[in-house]
Amino acid sequence: MCLAVPMKIVEINGDEGFVESSGLKRKANFSLIKSPKIGEYVLLHAGFAIEKVKESEAKKTLKILRSI
Amino acid sequence: MRYVDEFRNRRLIDKVAQEIRGAADPDLVYNIMEVCGTHTMSIFRFGLRDILPKGIKLISGPGCPVCVTPNEFIDKAIAIANAKGVIVATFGDMLKVPGSRSSLEKEKAKGRDIRIVYSSLDALDLARKYTTKRIVFLGIGFETTAPTVAQSILIAKKERLSNYFVLCGHKTMPEVMEVLVHDKLIKVDAFLLPGHVSAIIGLHPYEFLSVKYKKRCVISGFEPIDILQSILMIIRQRKPKVEIQYDRIIEKSGNPLARRSISKVFEKCPSTWRGIGSVRNSGLKIRRSYKEFDAEVKFKPKIEEPKDNIRCFCGYILKGLKTPYDCPSFARACTPEDPVGACMVSSEGTCAAYYKYGKDTTHSR
Q1: Which DSSP state fits B159?
Q2: Same domain, yes or no, for B165 and B263?
Q3: B21-27 own/partner pairs: CB under 8 Å, 24+ apart
Q4: Residue B137 contacts A where some CB pair is shorter than 8 Å
Q5: Which among A45, A57, A61 is the nearest to B144, CB-wise?
Q6: If exposure means fewest CB atoms within 10 Å of the residue's CB, which of A28, B183, B337, B339 is most exposed?
Q7: What is the Cα–Cα distance from B114 to B11, expressed in whole angstroms?
């Protein structure tokens, strides 16, 4: 139920817009996150973007794990 | 980067698993509860139990909202579905959950108008489309889902939709975790904390677990590498604390916008959890200022005394006291097609995970 998927913002019209992942495009509501921008990744849960995905932190995690 | 494949890299999985084997004390048993149903599913789906050392025991917890929703809620939803001119809109997982005497699926087969939606926003669309009908959305889920339902109520208020209602069964995690750590029968040394609940509430609401109860805690993502790294972090903690593994998502302070939305529409209340009972402050109810959207107020559903199925071990399984293999109904009387209990219904239920991915569904463990 708490499943949420990282998807890329491709369109914004006010609070709403579209996100995309692997060719799948979905309607999304952005009212729960601050200043969404096209090209950013968000976590989509039940039609709402609930948080942004931070690329720098993801890269850092992978780098640490590769180095062990 | 797409934030999925990179965290399923086989070579990296092997590397972290090897690191865990090196770091774990072979003389110790680590009892780690994964609180969230999405973690349970991921652990089974990627076969993570098989690559962990024997001393690391993963115990499934109560973090599947469909599973912990008590019969009383289903009974009320059914009573409302039977009222005149009502369309019940719900997440699909709720349909098959057995209530005391029936399920929403059985009621739908009898002709009640019950529809599966993906989001509360779809339920709002139904309210806009069918203006002569009363749309009742079943609001279940933890802190992850609660803000999305709060937003739907705020939108309905703004648009003056007078035919949209929510039957509110939302629950919150930290309070029930305190009940679990108090239960002397439950042996848990550490928690894999739910990543997406934490995206909303942040790190601080869990601090009592390490400070007061000396439990090691890590907020974990859901990909195999996330879960393995979190286990490694738990093993390496010298003294109990709450750490964040899932830092590509989680802010220490969570998502304040989402929390504001929750507290604007909902207030804390006691809530009944299947198998656990009533837990103080572990539920959310709609505030009086939004009572025109509260299905409980609007329909005052009358139900008979709820009853539980004695052949079902869901209650013990949700507390991590038994596994599905201990249940006499598992894979016999209780299957995903014809479930006896909620844990077999939900796609994130522990019994569903054991049934789908477990090596043994015949009890000869």
Answers
A1: T
A2: yes
A3: B21/B53, B23/B232, B23/B235, B23/B236, B24/B53, B24/B55, B24/B56, B24/B235, B25/B55, B26/B53, B26/B55, B27/B55
A4: no
A5: A45
A6: B337
A7: 46
| Domain membership flag for residue B363 | no
Contact (CB<8Å) B258/A32: yes
Judgement on whether residues B166 and B269 belong to the same structural domain of the protein: yes
Residues B74 and B152 in one domain: yes
Q: Identity (one letter) of the amino acid at B282?
A: S
Q: CB atoms < 10 A from the CB of A9, how many?
A: 22
The amino acid present at B139, given as its one-letter code, is G
Instruction: Flag if B145 and A45 touch (Cβ within 8 Å).
Output: yes
- Taking an 8 Å cut-off on Cβ atoms, the answer to whether A65 and B16 are in contact is yes
In this structure, the answer to whether residues B140 and B287 fall within a common structural domain is yes
In contact, B345 and B324? CB cutoff 8 Å: no
Residues B200 and B240 in one domain: yes
pLDDT in tens, chain B (365 residues): 888 889 999 999 999 999 999 999 999 999 999 999 999 999 999 999 999 999 999 999 998 999 999 999 999 999 999 999 999 999 999 998 999 999 999 999 999 999 999 999 999 999 999 999 999 999 999 999 999 999 999 999 999 999 999 999 999 999 999 999 999 899 999 999 999 999 999 999 999 999 999 999 999 999 999 999 999 999 999 999 999 999 999 999 999 999 999 999 999 999 999 989 999 999 999 999 999 999 999 999 999 999 888 888 998 999 899 999 999 999 999 999 889 888 998 888 999 999 999 865 444 33
Q: Indicate whether this model's pTM tops 0.90.
A: yes
Q: What is the CATH number of the domain that holds B181?
A: 3.40.50.11750
Among A27, A50, A60, beta carbon nearest to B200: A50
Token duo for residue B98: 């057995």
The encoded tokens of residue B132 equal: 């002569």
Q: Please report residues of B whose CB lies closer than 8 A to that of A57.
A: 247-248
Domains and CATH numbers, chain A: 5-67 (2.30.30.140)
Tell me the nearest-neighbour CA distance from A8 into chain B, angstroms: 9
B62 touches chain A (CB under 8 A): no
> Do B166 and B287 have their domain in common?
yes
Kindly state whether residues B217 and B276 are assigned to the same domain: no
Range of the domain at B218: 5-65+173-244
Per the CB < 8 Å rule, is B65 touching A2? yes
